[in-house]
Amino acid sequence: MEINRRDFVKLIGTAVAGIAVGGGAAAIMKIPKSLEHVLFSGPKKETWKLTACGRCPGGCSLRVRLIDKFPIQAFGNPLSPINDGGICSMGLTSISDLYHPSRITGPLKKVNGKFVSISYNEAYNILSENLKNVIKENRQDDIFIIAQTDSAVRTDLFNKFSKAAGIKNLIIDNYEGNSLNPYYDAAGDAPGFIDFEKCDYILNFGSRLSEMSQSPLYFSRSLIDFREKGYKITAAGSKLTGGIFKSDEWVRIQPAQFGELALGIAYVLLKDEQYDKNAEKLITGFDSIKKYILDNYYPDNVEKSTGVPSETIVQIGRKFEKAKAPAAYFDETILYSSNGTLNAQAIIILNALKSFKGFGKVKDSFYSSIINNANAASGNAAFNTFKNTIANKNSIKVLMISGSNFIFNNTDQEKLKKEISSIPFIVSFSSFIDETSTYANLIIPDHNDLEKLDLNFNESTGKSVITVQQPVVDPFYKTTDTGDVIISLMKDLGAKSDFPYTGVADYVKSIAKKLYDNRTGTLMTENKFTEIEKGLRKIGWTSDQYSSFDDFWDSLLEAGGWWNPFGDKDAFAPKINLAGKFPGKFETIEMPSKNKLTLNIFMKNLDYRGSMSLNPVLVEQFGHLWSVFYLTWVEINPETARRFSLDDRSSAFIKTSKGKFPVVVVYNSSVLAGNLDVPFGLGHDILGDKAGINPLMFTENIFDKVSGKPSLTETKAEIVSSSSRSING
Amino acid sequence: MAKYGMAIDLNKCNQCGACVTACKVENNLQIVSKESAAKGRVMQWMRLTNLSYEGNDPDVRPVTIPSLCVQCDDPPCTKVCPVRATYKRDDGIVAQIYPQCIGCRYCMANCPYNVKVFNWFKEDQPVEYEKCYNKDVAVRMKGVVEKCTFCIHRLQKAKEQAAAEHRKLNEEDYIPACAQVCPSHAFTFGDLDDPNSAVSKLKRDYRKFVLQEELGTLPKVFYLNAKSM
After folding, report:
1. Interface of B with A in 73-92 (CB under 8 A)
2. Rounded to whole angstroms, how far apart are CA atoms B152 and A199?
3. A108-174+378-446+481-493 against A178-362: fold identical
4. Is the confidence at residue A728, as pLDDT, over 50?
């Protein structure tokens, strides 16, 4: 657009009028009045603040660049033992969420189907009254809380609140908790980390360690180092992702069959008598499990059901038995199939046969000592309980939703929408009106991550690391830290509550006080230590001197975190008791073939919950690897594509039993013949301009029976060419 | 005078795309509309290019490289610019003077690496993206060719900082955004004229290769082959 002088004068006039009419710059720029003068007349001074990224469980430390108090960029903190200066796409773009125009600016109440603004006090009273009314009638079972959070502090607060109020139905959707729950169910304990100092072979069942895991940036580096040492990684999975092609060997298999593969490998160890004899003590009912495996998982049988050649199974089994400290790894990703939890149990048995030697635990873990919720990370109910309750028309009186967009993330979306509409009171703490919060009666929006205080605990490096998420800017809007709302409710409702803290800040400081008293570890101000210094530290010597806790607290905020590089580790060797759970019945999976296509939905790297496409940079870049922008694509093996007369970059429709959706065809010779690989994450229809399709809407309602996670790889599909040719790409 | 170059270790790169995002946000690249994207007008100075697949089933591997301006020592683009808007600096960086560019796109046509992009329109930017503009980088006007500059604004800032502190510019003072953010440290950046710099040492690595070597453009961005371990 050309702008001549006259247009320019007009534009300036309009802008000035806009400021006058709209009540000042804050109305236009949507910033707090207190910061108005800074925006326009500040000296443009650059400052940096350290905080923690809250976009995944990774616990990366961020250096945020501010110009006159306004955050504009984020980079990785080079002194963090987790991210070592690196940062991912999600972290890089985390700042723009702060300024997102669709952020809810204050509490909202639904009146006649429309949201209207109300004060925080009014919103809080509505919430509190609704809860009190149900609790008064002793109907706590009619209250459900669904919270998606990777924060240990928030998880702990939800646990404490539900305990104090007598609410049994707390569902915490937490990556770490989901990943470790099969271990807790089987052993009452879970591994802390892969012990890279000992581990000499990794057998990875579908986890995308360097892309989407408990600490993707740490694994990005450590897996390279692992292979540099000459150790091998075997990865099993249906798609050649970044993590899998960096492995030494790829076993092509549908995720629902991981368990059968694991038991086929266990067969080799048992038959060769090359398992660790300690396993006989570790596995309750060892003899019957051994007999079950030897009777049913002869590699030829496994080949018949999974398609993995028996020679490959034997070869992997031999590698596993020869390794001194192998690790068969899985995480939350394994749950996304009909056999999810059963598969995880089979892998746990395989690990037990080698006494879990590839794993370790942090000795005297500060995390466990401070926040004693590790074995209840997923709350005390599964999402399945919620779905069964509303499906059976049982009365749910109150539903509290924090951070979860479970309608977007599930396959039975229409059913869920219909069913939650019948719940009389839903409160959401969402920052956006998304596919789920749109059904709320009340919204009390949470702060942005850059506006709140939290602590991120991470032990995946083998060391306790605590990264401080501190506010780098004052809250822009009338939002409230959900943790503070929960603490207020705990005091109002929890007669039995002995929680002495007044708010999140108070609680977080109390944890930091324990760090101060503990005096182990050090601030995150250096990440290299000499052996002499390590030795001195172990016997109690420290160069860190603080005159008071306040002095320590200020230093902690300035350093952005704390870690204990001097701590020791413990072996992880729990007793496994799967009585009544294993062996279960594996669902028979129909293999994809040339004639029977399967919809294989994959998550983009780092996009854990399909929220990536709410960010304008990330939505544009979503398909950049294939130069497909703002559209959903299907990756298909060229041979399969040609059978259906599909050209590369042509338009097509994928049909399932639930309907059809448009895709751009992308040839990818690494895709399994018969698989239609479609990304999850696009297709938000509530916020702004819709880009792409949410394939979960077209996925059959197949779930893991224990965790309730939807299967992403078992929907039968067809693909047909559409007449018009796509010009994208 | 330093001569800047970059090594990208394909053994470490796992296609996460952090470099692509970092380039976008560091240099205030426009986000384009769906319509412009459909016409192939997405603005990226750095992208991941899927070249091919190697190996036989089931050991197939994608050959994907982060591609950016390779900062040729003998750049074909500068030779065809009628207004000298693109030129090679003494430190080897191929730079672009945006106000001088007339948008003829000869340089794009003559670039064998297809890494220059044309700014077709001034598109409305999402407000949350505009608020995060990097204040060190001017937003380009429409009608000009854009390209990677090795984040030249960072070099300028680092030089000023070093001068203010009465010291020489150190190697760690200046690093482009893509190299800074890479989670797996696949990028190595530095002075190719300094035989002791990390990037110089990697230039002598047996795995080193450059794109389209036969053209004789002498790229200063080179790659290290993914070795089998």
Report:
1. none
2. 43
3. no
4. no
